Amino acid sequence: MPSPLVDVRLRPIVGVDLGLLHGGDSEFDDFGPRPVRTEPPSPDLRSGPGGLAVVDPASHAVLGMVSWVWQRWGPNPESASPMIGVWLRREARGRGVGTAAQAALVDLFFERLRLHRVEAHTDVDNLVEQRALERIGFRREGVVRGAQWRRGAWHDGWLYSLLREEWLAAREGSAPTGG
Fold first, then answer.
1. How far apart are CA 18 and CA 37, in angstroms?
2. Of 157, 127, 128, whose CA–CA distance to 141 is shortest?
3. Helix 97-112 to helix 164-172 angle, to the nearest 10 degrees?
4. Disulfide: which of 11, 74, 90, 96 matches 79 by Cβ 3.0-4.6 Å?
5. 125 neighbors 95 (Cβ within 8 angstroms)
6. pLDDT per residue as tens digits for the range 95-140
7. Pairing between strand 153-163 and 117-123?
8. Which residues pair with residue 68 across a beta bridge?
9. Which residues lie below 8 Å from residue 35, measured CB to CB, with a gap of 6+?
C-alpha cells in the first residue's frame, strides 16, 4: 500500500486566484504566450474544460490547480472520459501535492459521476508526473505520437487511464478483477 498522500483540498477557483495560476514556468508547460485568464474555469465536473484550485487546508494558500477536458472514444455519452491534468506553483512542487491533488480529483469524478474511466496524458520525458499517476493507480496505455505542440516542436506523450473497478479495488485494498 502506498504511503499516505499529503493533505490538500480542492475548491472552485475564484477571481483573486487567477493571478496565481498563470502556468508556463515549467519545461512541460511552455506552450508559448497565452492570453491572461480573466474568468475562472468551470468547477462543474460534467462540463469542460474545467478546473479547481488546489489549496493547503492549514494555510488556505493556493498551491495550484487541477483541470480536465472531456474525451470521447465513441458516439454515445457513456464513451466519454475526463482527461485530467495538474499545474502547481513552483513552491508547491516536489512534495507530493500534485499526486494528492490528482487523487482527490479522481475521487471526485468516480464518487459523483457514473464514469468507467479517467484519463491523463503526460510528456514521455515527464518522469515526475508519470510516477505521480502510477502511484495513484493509473496504468500506462501507450504512446501518443506527436500529440502536443510545445516549445516550438511536436512532443510525444504517454496516455494513462484508471478504470472504476481499479479505483474501487484500490480503495478496498484488493486487486482489480478486470482489465
1. 7
2. 157
3. 110
4. 74
5. no
6. 999 999 999 999 999 999 999 999 999 999 999 999 999 999 999 9
7. antiparallel
8. 50, 84
9. none
